[in-house]
Design goal:
CATH class of the largest domain: Alpha Beta
Helix content: 40-55%
Structural class: alpha+beta
Number of domains: 2
Radius of gyration: 28 Å
CATH superfamily of the largest domain: PPM-type phosphatase domain
Largest sheet: 5 strands, antiparallel
Distance between the termini: 58 Å
Number of strands: 10
CATH topology of the largest domain: Phosphatase 2c, domain 1
Strand content: 15-25%
Amino acid sequence: MLGLAGAFFGGRPASALTRRLLREPVVMAVLLASTLLLGLSMVQWESIVPAIALVLPLLFGGLFVPPRALTWLVGTVAFCLIAGGIVIGGGQTFAAVTVVVGITAVVSLGLARSRARLGLQGTMGESMLVDLRDRLAAQGRMPPLGRGWQIDLKHHAAERSSFSGDFAVASRSTDGRVLELALVDVSGKGHNAGTRALLLSGAFGGLLGSLPPGQFLPAANAYLLRQRWPEGFATAVHLVVDLTTGEYEVRSAGHPPAIHFHAGSGRWATLDTEGGLLGVYEQKHYEPVTGRMRPGDALMLYTDGLVEAPRRDLSDGIDKLQGEAERLVAHGFDGGAQKLINAVASSDADDRALLLLLRTI
């Protein structure tokens, strides 16, 4: 029973006994017998077993029976309804129940076809999606930076979805001196971009730190070109920081410009970088912009979903972001990424991500 509950509710690996019980012939035999028993009980004891009870085998069949076998179950349910209508009589109530059972049958058939495409049983498809979402979040965790540095990353999926096309990957060198990270925006949004983001986060995470910094974006671009996706492009900003000296390099592939806060002057400066989108055409070199972070400085990376809006130029959105960032300076950077997203994002129609890298001492 525990094994069956685990397979049904959590999608976890079932025991050998559970797997035998969930084989198609066994499940079909149980469901057909249950349906006929419910139909007979409905005719004999209508007040105790209502006709609406026939939705139960349909719901269970939608989770565990393949579409072709499920049609037999739907036919059996229809037979029981017809027989019940003839024996106990029709009426408005019975007609309403018939409509509800029919809708349930259509939903169950749709669910069974969806499972058949995935090759999964029960609720394992939903569990797999949750696992993919958690893996994407885990791959975006930033490494600890040590004394004198802080990093704040926040991202929100479009329309409160659990999946986002924006993701970040980061790597710290074995000697702990160099931090390398990339913020990526995959074409599309929400669920449509989530699967591509998962694949790219794994690939880009493997490239990051394994290649010289100047080769990361060309290699990422070449990888995307090989996929030949209909909507296969992405934008990315690549940052390499020496955590000892504060010197950095920023490269962009069609991404909105990074912004550097200079504590000495109290101003935010846009780092104008150029480079083609990833996955559109071959590009061997992405020109870097260099600089140095001094104590009190900050670097801000973000995706275009934060600054884009209908009937508004992208530069206006960047100016608004800088204006809100200037207000942030007076109150400190704690929780700054979330505050800026709340203040700047005009809607939740697109994925949004923002990363703040701070040098405190």
